[in-house]
């Protein structure tokens, strides 16, 4: 009768013997990454029986910090409610490169620091695609911020004093992925244009920016009339960028029409219950 080989068992089982020196060094590196300075200070004083519990404690701390970090990133991203790409009707737009969107979802543009520009009329899914990209980036450990152009520029112009403005500029320049939604829906002053240029310039070739717009770049001079920096804004956005043009009718309008049709069918005609009086 042969003896079965030893089973490695649960690596976090406290009944296991003290880890080898290589594993102890790995645990120390993980503890240092977690900044468990008290544990590291007494590392050499840990008795052999404590090592399995140290291993388990470090694993618990790693899992909990990842969970809390994800919650913080999701909260800070301000993505809001959105429709998953899996539920999107790709047959609705007259033009939308699904393969390009799938490529964006691989997040390769973050490593390449390539901007993404989504161009199209209202209601064709630009914001929805941008929200999905932002959410996936956060889930993969990146920081993101989703904000409309009106919100961001209004926030920046409302800052009182140079120090406050510098802090807010840093706030928008910091995320791994910045999504500026709805550029072109409103017109802005020269001051707004200068602030947008400041944000784009701070992120240029360092971190990617995703922009959704209903205007081609040739019409951005109407969005920022008389602003001297419009050409510079467009130049920095387009350089190292991927531009996706979406064409079609509003998906929101389609859904609204479908809801109205369903409600109309659900309403049954009321029967006339008024009794006719007998002839005299």
Summary tags:
five-stranded parallel sheet, 48% helix, 12 helices, 10% strand, alpha/beta, disordered N terminus, 280 residues
| Main sheet characteristics | 5 strands, parallel
Q: How many DSSP helices?
A: 12
Low-confidence stretches: 1-18
Roughly how many Å apart are the termini? 113 Å
Strand content: 5-15%
Can you write the helix and strand succession as a string? HHHHHEHEHHEHEHHEH
For the largest sheet, list the strands in their spatial order.
2-3-4-1-5
> Which value, in Å, is the CA radius of gyration?
28 Å
**Structural class, from secondary structure content?**
alpha/beta
Give me the count of strands.
5
What general outline do the C-alpha atoms trace?
Answer: globular
Helix content: 40-55%
Report on this model:
The protein is of the alpha/beta class. The chain contains twelve helices and five strands. It has helices at 21-33, 37-41, 51-77, 98-104, 108-112, 126-139, 149-157, 162-173, 190-203, 220-223, 230-238, 251-266; strands at 115-119, 144-148, 177-183, 209-213, 241-245. It has a five-stranded parallel β-sheet with strand order 2-3-4-1-5. α3 (51-77) packs antiparallel against α6 (126-139) and α7 (149-157) packs antiparallel against α8 (162-173). It is globular.
